[in-house]
Amino acid sequence: xxxxxxxxxxxxxxxxxxxxxxxxxxxxxxxxxxxxxxxxxxxxxxxxxxxxxxxxxxxxxxxxxxxxxxxxxxxxxxxxxxxxxxxxxxxxxxxxxxxxxxxxxxxxxxxxxxxxxxxxxxxxxxxxxxxxxxxxxxxxxxxxxxxxxxxxxxxxxxxxxxxxxxxxxxxxxxxxxxxxxxxxxxxxxxxxxxxxxxxxxxxxxxxxxxxxxxxxxxxxxxxxxxxxxxxxxxxxxxxxxxxxxxxxxxxxxxxxxxxxxxxxxxxxxxxxxxxxxxxxxxxxxxxxxxxxxxxxxxxxxxxxxxxxxxxxxxxxxxxxxxxxxxxxxxxxxxxxxxxxxxxxxxxxxxxxxxxxxxxxxxxxxxxxxxxxxxxxxxxxxxxxxxxxxxxxxxxxxxxxxxxxxxxxxx
Length: 410
Fold this sequence. Notes:
Blueprint: E1 2-3, H1 4-8, E2 17-20, E3 28-29, E4 31-35, E5 48-52, H2 61-73, E6 78-83, H3 93-101, E7 106-110, H4 115-145, H5 151-160, E8 169-177, H6 179-185, H7 188-211, E9 220-222, E10 225-231, H8 235-256, E11 260-265, H9 275-291, E12 298-300, H10 306-312, H11 316-336, H12 341-350, H13 355-362, H14 366-380, H15 387-403
Parallel strand pairs: 4-5, 5-6, 6-7, 11-12
Antiparallel strand pairs: 1-3, 2-7, 8-10, 8-11, 9-10
């Protein structure tokens, strides 16, 4: 990947000056774009380095401020303003201040530095970065899959590609869910365009957050999933990663509706020979993140407890039989009527048997809750006052939740 900081260091581009937005020097550049219209919001998708010349459209302070704000809103990588005697004489102070406030890298390019020189240098660097990125991704994918004959040979290749694999890692597995809803709401072409736009924005945001953690490795994109390898030598770094990832999920899910982003985190301290195992941990955590709403879309492998055992059971028939024996009557009854018994049992267990709290959570009268609990005991043949029976019900509920996100093998 090519960052703003890399562009400033390219041979022949020393006349480019960073005027504002140093906090965004790690922004990844996808391609250069020359702004020809009054605004850019309808013409960019995120990740562009936008060039503003003033040649085909007058650029007064108000318009430049508009462009900076639109660039920030559309998540472009940065903006370059060409200055000289003929068109834009100088970048207004207010524009520099606004770019700094928004952490948008703002570069100044004198007109005597020819555009063809700049775009050729950036284009060449982008091609080289893409080739290097593909090679690095291939190495990482082999490590994640465990599909290699010699670890030593693969690590030698990683060193030649300058991959920082000596850093212990925590694996993060993201999943963007709900894309099918877009195709229910919109025409196919419009829905596909929206979905690809969401994916690109999300990819860029995840990439920026991961880069901010240091020792960044490229994201691995696999359909609706992204794999990130976060630096994490110990539990303290793991907690820091969790906080940053939780904040990322909150920001992303605020604007993604009806789509939803989920995340599973592995344990910390994984070295390259353990990446495949770490990815397995992240997968288990992701299933739990999707299955239990109270986890707010994020789960860590180290927090799974008994769920680690349940999600690792490969005999689905064994799990299905247990759920059917314990909860089958409730599931059947909810299927015939409005589903109330399973949500009631789950709320009562989550509230540790506190009737008042459970009734409040369900927004029902306490007497209604009492009647439902009696019916649950009758249908299951289990007493809610017996701790062995409560354990059966709790575990069966966990399996029932997990089963929705673990399809049976073909």
